[in-house]
Amino acid sequence: MGSAPASEDVASEDVASGDVHLPSSVQTAAKILVVGHFAVGKTTFVGALSEIRPLRTEEVMTEAGALVDDLAGTKAKTTTTVALDFGRLTLNDSLVLYLFGTPGQQRFTQLWQDMTRGALGALVLADTRRLGQSFDVMGVLEELGLPYAVALNEFDDAPGHDLAEIREALDLLPETPLVRCDARDRISSTHALIALVEYLLNRTSDTSDSELEHV
Q1: In the CATH hierarchy, which top-level class contains the domain 28-59+78-209?
Q2: How would you label 49-83 residue by residue, b for 16+ Cβ within 10 Å and e otherwise?
Q3: How far apart, in whole angstroms, are the C-alpha atoms of residue 44 and residue 50?
Q4: Which residues fall in a coiled-coil region (predicted)?
Q5: Total-model pTM
Q6: How far apart are CA 210 and CA 20, in angstroms?
Q7: What is the 8-class DSSP label of residue 124?
Q8: Strand pairing category for 79-90 and 55-60
Q9: Using one digit for the tens of pLDDT, what is the confidence trace for 62-104?
Q10: Would you give the distance in Å from CA 192 to the centre of its chain?
């Protein structure tokens, strides 16, 4: 990894310079949430993956915000998402994903709870330096019944931990995907998203099989 932190204040590379139209063959669109605590890299992640110029609603952080937001480990962060990030990724000729990045501060929880409507699932970005801050996010998803996978955004100064240790620390179910990623890197971020999509597809298949068994 490079020397720059894998955080939301890193300007992501524009994947596309102009409008990108969906192929006429696309028949299915899925809404995916990218969630996580404050300054975990959600804006960077959406920007790295989006095939169109992502929509961002970032504002400069103020001294008033510093009184309510935990800025530990985020000294270089100067802006924050106040509504959502939006991007689009076409997976194949028939399936497109719409990515919605949510604000990380607790005061915006109601906003992103509303954004879960119609969502197929969520990717939770986590930071090993601040794992405890992920519990509230996962708790809301579980209350809403929205399936999710967890991706560890590997910041350059974060301590290394075995995935089994992280899984235990986060108290994840055995079937919940847990992967590593670098939110700045398109390929790495794609692999994290694929882990979520495969999990969601398997859940759908298992549900269908279970329904057939009871017919």
Answers
A1: alpha beta
A2: bbbbbbebeeeebeeebeeebeeebbeebeebbeb
A3: 10
A4: none
A5: 0.76
A6: 39
A7: E
A8: antiparallel
A9: 444 444 445 555 555 445 444 588 999 988 888 889 999 988 6
A10: 9
